[in-house]
Amino acid sequence: MDLLQNFSDKDMIEQITILDDIQSNAQHEAIPALFDIYAVPLSDVAVDEMVYHALITLLKGQDAAILSGLGHGSPRVRILCVKAAGENNIHAALPLLAEILQTGNQETELLTEAVRALSKIDDPGILDILLPYINHQDATIAGLAMDKAAASGEERGRDALCSYISAACQDGGTDESLGVGLAFSKLGNFTDDKTIDFLISHIHNHNPTIRKIVHEQVIKAGEIALQCLAKALTTGDKDEKIMAANIIGLIKHKNGANIITDLLDSQEQIDANLKFAAYEALGRIPSMRSIVGLTDGLADSDEMILIAVMTGLNEIYNPGLAKALLSALQKDAGQRARILSALVATRAGKLFTAVFQDGTYMEELLGILAASHNLESITFFKELLASMADDKAAELLKKLEISDHSSGGKSILAADDSKAMLFFYTSALAGMDVCLTTAEDGQQAFNLLKSGERVDLLVTDLNMPNMDGVELVKEIRNSLKLDIPILMASTESEKSQTDLALQAGVSAFITKPFTKEQFIEKVTALIR
After folding, report:
1. Domain at 410-527: CATH code
2. Which of these, 14, 302, 325, 421, could form a disulfide with 416 (CB 3.0-4.6 Å)?
3. Would you state the pLDDT for residue 172?
4. Looking at residue 499, what is its pLDDT?
5. Phi, then psi, of 486 in degrees rounded to 5
6. Are 90 and 121 in contact (CB under 8 A)?
């Protein structure tokens, strides 16, 4: 094309004018000449970029020109046409794109773009071409192949992802493998029983980051995952059972409450950590079975279990619960004190109101509240009484008047995604001269520390969403360079998990379940 002769010798203004004219007037006959210009990079990067965009625009709908460019002698032109073939969904390009994949020693960029183009073309034969690239050492190429496998919705796509994960786990490759995490996330596109079973078999994957991804996919599956989770509750190991209960609660489907209450009603002896997880799960599922299961839990004498029960009851409260609560308070003075103490610790406003309206146990409840030294709870219930605008409430409010107190002692940060555990920590530390701040996950705790929050001790759970305990500890030690003592609380029974945490920089462990006294002993030893 005469207009493009000696293009590289022209000044920039003239080059821009020519390219704009060709593009505006859709002069497709200029494509071969533009290929030759683009084959050798121009000295002016901006103009070179304009040539690229002019070609991309002109090539839309020009299948023959794109196919011709795939055989061009310049790698630059071939890469450009590979991209165009994918964008234009050119089925006739399949043999040429497949040939690019089959030739050896090709540039990574060309290979990547060929895989990307193939992944965009809607043809059933492409899946067989791309599946082997799930194992490619280049993360981008492997990721594109995984995308295609997931988008296909076909069994062979699912099986290829599962095979890749199984091989990587067998080789111990989950420690640093982004590919394994990506493959698990892609399995979330499938909802068949085989996929759900496979995901649940990895709910206790030894890599915390991958474990979190697996949990997310099972939760996303929703109700269809419940039967497989029910199986894990009966056949899994200790840690798998706890995680299955947690996930059932997070799915929040009423059928999950049936599964959890069946577990609690079984004659088997249930581990305390599993029982805690079960009651916490019921508190996330609004259903009559949840209410029945939680009210049965009022008979439990374990302090931590009762905190989970009261947290759950307050979350899914309905007026009919008042009668069940008052009935439980009537049965035994010792158990009544434990229930009321848990009510105070969990700041269960709806349950407090039920006790207030009945009146029978209000004096005892206020005595327990005052003796708790839990300033957060006292403040909460004072505000609740003040909001009632009732003479009886005003009278009770006077009994709770206390002098303002701010701790001048050590500062403790507790991170846990369990409301019940955060209530437990607040209650346990109420009698100590410490200032407690709470965070609902590792990311929230990290942000507080990053902002300059003074902390003398971090108490963190291991398994949390957004950022788990191991990730949090790594960030504190490596990014923030803080040497504060860190106490990790966990239900984990596997040594591999504690080893991971120790390597990250944890100072000490406390294994759930534990009493207030055991917790205070650990805390005291670390903040002396």
Report:
1. 3.40.50.2300
2. 421
3. 59
4. 83
5. -130, 125
6. yes
Bond prior to 465 in cis (omega within 30° of 0): no
Q: Which of 1-15, 319-333, 427-441 has the highest mean pLDDT?
A: 319-333
- 252: β partners: none
CB 270 within 8 A of CB 258: no
Give the residue from 86, 105, 189, 104 showing the smallest Cα distance to 146.
189
Number of residues written out for the chain:
528
The pLDDT of residue 254 is above 70: yes
d(CA 206, CA 471): 14
Q: What six digits make up the tokens of 445? A: 């705790």
Residue 349: half-sphere exposure toward Cβ, Cα within 13 Å:
11
Task: Please give the full DSSP string across 432-490, using - where no structure is assigned.
Answer: SSEEEEEESSHHHHHHHHHTT---SEEEEESS-SSS-HHHHHHIIIIIS-----EEEEE
The CA-based angle 233-237-241, given to 5 degrees, is 30
Rounded-to-integer distance, Cα 306 and Cα 347, Å: 13
Locate 267 and state its tokens: 């004659």
DSSP helix/strand/coil, 43: coil
Q: Measure the CA–CA gap between 229 and 212, rounded to whole angstroms.
A: 16
Six token digits for residue 222: 């929703």
Domain spans, the chain: 410-527
Specify the pLDDT at position 174: 46
The distance of Cα 442 from the centroid of its chain, to the nearest Å, equals: 11
- Which long-range contacts link 58-62 to residues 24+ away (Cβ below 8 Å)? 58/22, 58/23, 58/26, 58/27, 58/28, 58/30, 58/31, 58/34, 59/31, 59/84, 59/88, 60/84, 60/87, 60/88, 61/88, 62/28, 62/31
Q: Which residues pair with 415 in a beta bridge?
A: 439, 460
Check pLDDT > 50 for residue 436: yes
How many Å apart are CA 377 and CA 423, to the nearest integer? Answer: 10
